[in-house]
């Protein structure tokens, strides 16, 4: 039950020890305020109704007011400064989490189960939007309330210990009912979260301009509304079920509180009328029993909260242990050791390289189908290889294995005769410049979108942008390469078109100047003239480099040294354009299907 609490204590102690100390001290200081507030009025009232000695009255008032002043000041300091430190701890933890995710294998991030694990991990971390460390606050609150309980229980016990037992029973019944309601609510929350994702998906469809034409042309509005309604109906039904449970538990809790008050006041009034306790003592006991009930309820409520959310800790543990096997860290736990092992691996020498696929096969996690099987080929120095085939043929998987976003399921890939797993991961990745079809631009300056964290050379940045065909657009930008891409942080930024974005992505590949260039459908968003210019300058752009060119447009393969035709995850044909056309096989058939519309 307390694994999650230990986690938060360790995180807090790791990043800011004062955060933990301040929270403990905050609870201790505040826990004594109700005890003093119950005791001091008794002595003040008894003194007023007795000898009314000024010096004693001043002493009692001084103790009460003085402690309240000191405790109030310390409480504000520990609370506010503690909150600042808590925010810092949360930010540091988020940064650490993002570092782990940046190192994690891409295969894990593409796994659908990862999204479910992520949602449940965040439910533990943030406890349904209560905030980072809410469970630790709940646990420390228990500690503070236990101090309070000890003080007021000692006061009540001087009257009759049976009153304490009655309060325990009645408070326990109310909290038990609320605990069951929260347990049921937590189970329903998992279904609500899943349905809310579906609801938000359909809600965004109506708000997204990109889907506007399809919805209107195909009269999809009512059909999509029905699907949206199905999701939000389930969400509302489950939320109603949650709230009905809370209403029932609230009524039970209110009934128990009513009984507590009746018992306490009846007992105290009887004792006062019998002359067995003074008016001051009556006031003290009333305050004590009220505080006792409140503190006990808080303790039990917080224990329930901890139990409800702690059930998600195991998912957080998985989330923090997302494998980074490609970097040598099997389960994400022993990063320091794995980093040491990684440093011992080979550093890839600069210059050109030969890459060899030896009977390589690959199967995605959870799939029984081979995405690639028995793929063998060699990329020699300076070779220009075109990879073609229909959708699902295995072209993209081939590139992911080449760039080591994945490792083969069977067979091996060698660079310069050495298995690629023996190379330092980042060193191996430095050998590749890539332009993927699903490239992404960032809300940074144009220069930073090209350099991508590498040292900036303004002259080189401008040169590669012009070589990539972005020169005309560059001349129209008021701040040149320092213009922001998108307007998230700068209203003077520009929104690149699909073709402009692809040119920027090509420029960043040229800027990296790696010995191996991978171009995955680099002309997909270009107009015919821009595509022609790219083909015309292809040899110039890849001069002195090994190039892998993936395209559906087979006319683009004619300037490559060799063509590999993929089908069903295998290489079914290889050769030059002329050789493959003479074979009249799969390549020739695909080429002629496209050519008939141009001849």
Binned, the helix content reads: 55-70%
Strand content: 5-15%
Tell me the distance between the termini: 73 Å
Residue stretches low in confidence (pLDDT < 50, at least 5 long) are: 335-342
Number of strand elements: 10
What is the approximate shape? elongated
Rg calc: 35 Å
Mean pLDDT across residues:
80
Q: Assign the structural class, choosing from mainly alpha, mainly beta, alpha/beta, alpha+beta, or little secondary structure.
A: alpha/beta
Main sheet attributes: strand count, strand direction, barrel closure: 6 strands, mixed
- Strand line-up of the largest beta sheet: 6-7-8-3-9-10
How many distinct helices? 23
Architecture overview:
It contains 23 helices and 10 strands. The protein has 599 residues and is of the alpha/beta class. Helix 3 (33-49) runs antiparallel to helix 4 (54-103) and helix 8 (161-207) packs across helix 11. The protein has helices at residues 3-15, 17-31, 33-49, 54-103, 106-109, 112-126, 134-157, 161-207, 212-217, 221-273, 279-310, 313-320, 335-343, 395-402, 425-429, 446-451, 458-467, 471-476, 498-512, 528-536, 538-541, 577-583, 586-595; strands at residues 355-362, 372-379, 384-388, 410-415, 418-419, 432-435, 516-520, 546-550, 562-567, 570-575. Strands 6-7-8-3-9-10 form a 6-stranded mixed β-sheet, with helices on both faces. Strands 2-1-4-5 form a 4-stranded antiparallel β-sheet, with helices on one face.
């Amino acid at each position: 039950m307390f694994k999650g609490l230990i986690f938060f204590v360790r995180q807090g102690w790791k990043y800011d020890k004062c955060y933990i100390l301040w929270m403990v001290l905050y609870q201790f200081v505040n826990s004594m305020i109700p005890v003093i507030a119950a005791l001091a009025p008794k002595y003040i009232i008894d003194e007023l109704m007795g000898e009314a000695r000024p010096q004693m009255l001043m002493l009692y008032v001084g103790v009460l007011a003085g402690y309240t002043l000191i405790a109030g000041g310390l409480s504000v300091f520990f609370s506010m400064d503690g909150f600042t430190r808590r925010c810092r701890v949360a930010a540091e933890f988020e940064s650490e989490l993002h570092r782990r995710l940046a190192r994690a294998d891409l295969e894990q991030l593409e796994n659908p189960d990862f999204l479910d694990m992520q949602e449940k991990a965040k439910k533990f971390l943030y406890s349904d939007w209560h905030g980072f460390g809410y469970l630790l606050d709940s646990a420390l609150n228990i500690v503070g309330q236990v101090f309070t309980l000890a003080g007021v229980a000692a006061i009540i016990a001087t009257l009759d210990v049976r009153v304490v037992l009655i309060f325990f029973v009645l408070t326990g019944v109310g909290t038990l009912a609320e605990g069951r309601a929260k347990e049921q609510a937590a189970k329903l929350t998992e279904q609500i979260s899943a349905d809310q994702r579906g609801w938000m998906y359909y809600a965004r469809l109506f708000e997204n301009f990109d889907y506007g034409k399809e919805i209107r042309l195909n009269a999809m509005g009512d059909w999509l509304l029905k699907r949206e309604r199905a999701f939000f109906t389930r969400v509302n039904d489950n939320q109603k079920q949650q709230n009905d449970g809370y209403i029932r538990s609230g009524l039970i809790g209110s009934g128990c509180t009513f009984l507590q008050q009746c018992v306490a006041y009846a007992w105290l009034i009887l004792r006062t009328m019998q002359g067995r306790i003074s008016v001051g003592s009556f006031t003290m006991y009333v305050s004590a029993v009220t505080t006792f009930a409140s503190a006990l309820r808080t303790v039990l409520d917080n224990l329930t909260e901890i139990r409800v959310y702690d059930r998600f800790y195991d998912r957080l543990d998985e989330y923090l242990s997302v494998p980074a096997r490609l970097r040598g860290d099997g389960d994400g736990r022993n990063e320091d050791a794995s980093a040491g092992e990684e440093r011992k691996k080979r550093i890839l020498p600069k210059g050109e390289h030969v890459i060899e696929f030896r009977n390589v096969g690959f199967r995605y996690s959870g799939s029984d189908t081979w995405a690639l099987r028995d793929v063998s080929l060699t990329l020699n120095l300076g070779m220009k290889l075109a990879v073609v085939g229909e959708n699902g043929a295995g072209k993209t998987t081939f590139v992911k294995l080449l760039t080591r976003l994945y490792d083969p399921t069977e067979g091996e890939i060698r660079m310069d005769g050495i298995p690629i797993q023996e190379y330092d991961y980042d060193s191996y990745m430095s050998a590749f410049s890539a332009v993927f079809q699903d490239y992404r631009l960032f809300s940074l300056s144009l220069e930073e979108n090209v350099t991508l964290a590498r040292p900036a050379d303004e002259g080189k940045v401008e040169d590669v942008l012009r070589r990539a065909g972005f020169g005309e657009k560059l001349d129209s930008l008021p701040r040149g390469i320092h213009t922001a891409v998108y307007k998230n942080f700068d209203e003077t930024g520009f929104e690149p078109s699909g073709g402009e974005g692809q040119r920027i992505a090509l420029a960043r590949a040229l800027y990296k100047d790696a010995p191996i260039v991978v171009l995955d459908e680099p002309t997909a968003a270009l107009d015919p003239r821009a595509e022609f210019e790219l083909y015309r300058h292809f040899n110039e752009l890849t001069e002195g480099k090994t190039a892998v060119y993936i395209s559906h447009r087979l006319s683009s393969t004619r300037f490559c040294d060799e063509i590999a035709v993929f089908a069903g995850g295998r290489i079914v044909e290889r050769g030059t354009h002329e050789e493959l056309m003479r074979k009249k096989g799969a390549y020739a058939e695909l080429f002629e299907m496209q050519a008939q519309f141009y001849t």
